[in-house]
Fold this protein.
Amino acid sequence: MKNHLLVLENQSDMVETVKMSQKLRKEISDYENYIHTGCDILDIIIKDKSRKAKEKNIDFSATIDFYDVKFIESLDISTIFGNGIDNAIEATEKLPEEQRAVIIKAKIIHGFVMILIENTCNDRSKSKFKTSKEDKFLHGFGIRNMKKAVEKYNGECTSNCTDGKYNLKILIPINSEKRSATK
């Protein structure tokens, strides 16, 4: 389809044809950037967060293989990824546009579900699992909810900020019962 558009653009110099092909290119790019994670709810979350990042001129990359992760409940997936990515986008948008980046990686490694949410950050934002917002009473629930969701599966959350990168790492063990449920 992109090749057809290229031919269409080069055969005609009509302004309307060029506008139409540009519109089609934009629509195609939405589908090209669609990430298939193996989990429908996660696909929706990643597509939404990717769109929000793009609107804020944040370089967004997600490499996720959740095809064999069947034991984590949808609400917990939404809590972990939704809050983690929202926090990453919020922190990153405070930076100059050329420094904005969010990277998401998730897959099963050596009997663990490993999730990494990394974003560029200001080195002063070194607080671990604490809100940076002024009204601390009304904020910080997302982080606590993420930790609760991970702990529900006997997992752990760790975070650090070094060299202008904030890393949130989540490890959730897959025990033998969960392993057989994922197959």
